[in-house]
């Protein structure tokens, strides 16, 4: 199964003319909160699905989610680093610019994040060319953008293995608390994403 491990949204402005700084989006805050909720760091992800209505979006978001420092995305992506089969799996379906952009592309970044994890688990997701399916993908970051760089939403997806009696007991305790109305979400970051 694939689980939602963390999710966060941030909204800083309505119109781009109100944006505090054109080089910094609120993806910095939404991604950090989602990663903190999930209990993982940005560098632990197997894939990064980033909303890319324009080419600048991918570079802004790579910087804002913490893959590289501000102003360094142009060097980070050199030599095909994020191209199909590159070192860093970004927008593995081709992204909104190359695959599909119906105006609500944020849903597609989540679908692709989940499809990568499912394909690595052995589900038949169809064929793709070089770099299309990732081997052993367990963690994916999906990031969506709304408005004019106005609102940012980040989700962390994972294939989780309950690998100990202690973790199973934690889940059972949570279910009891949830039934009694004392818990709102399962702390999935205590579960394992074993790569074995």
Describe the protein's architecture and organization.
- By secondary structure, the protein is an alpha+beta fold.
- It contains 6 helices and 4 strands, in the order βαβααααββα.
- Strands 1-4-3-2 form a 4-stranded mixed beta sheet, sandwiched between helices.
- β3 (about 140-145) and β4 form a beta hairpin.
- The radius of gyration is 17 Å and the shape is globular.
- The model has no long low-confidence stretch (mean pLDDT about 80).
Question: How do you describe this structure in short?
Answer:
The protein has 196 residues and is of the alpha+beta class. The chain is built from six helices and four strands.
Key descriptive features of the protein:
single chain, 196 residues, alpha+beta, 4-stranded mixed β-sheet, 4 strands
List the helices and strands and how they pair.
Layout: E1 2-11, H1 27-38, E2 47-50, H2 55-64, H3 73-76, H4 95-98, H5 106-120, E3 139-146, E4 151-159, H6 165-179
């Amino acid at each position: 199964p694939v689980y939602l491990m963390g999710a966060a949204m941030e909204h800083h402005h309505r119109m781009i003319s109100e944006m505090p700084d054109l080089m910094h989006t609120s993806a910095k805050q939404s991604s950090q909160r989602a990663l903190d909720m999930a209990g993982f760091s940005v560098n632990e992800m197997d894939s990064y699905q980033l909303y890319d209505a324009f080419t600048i979006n991918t570079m802004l978001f790579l910087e804002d989610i913490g893959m590289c420092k501000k102003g360094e995305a142009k060097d980070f992506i050199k030599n095909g680093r994020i191209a199909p089969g590159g070192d860093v799996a970004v927008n593995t379906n081709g992204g909104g610019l190359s695959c599909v952009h119906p105006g609500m592309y944020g849903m597609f970044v989540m679908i692709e994040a989940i499809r990568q994890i499912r394909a690595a688990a052995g589900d038949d997701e169809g064929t793709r060319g070089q770099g299309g399916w990732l081997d052993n993908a367990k963690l994916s970051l999906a990031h969506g953008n709304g408005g004019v760089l106005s609102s940012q939403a980040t989700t962390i997806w994972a294939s989780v293995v309950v690998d100990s009696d202690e973790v199973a007991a934690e889940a059972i305790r949570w279910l009891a608390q949830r039934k009694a109305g004392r818990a709102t979400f399962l702390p999935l970051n205590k579960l394992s994403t074993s790569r074995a």
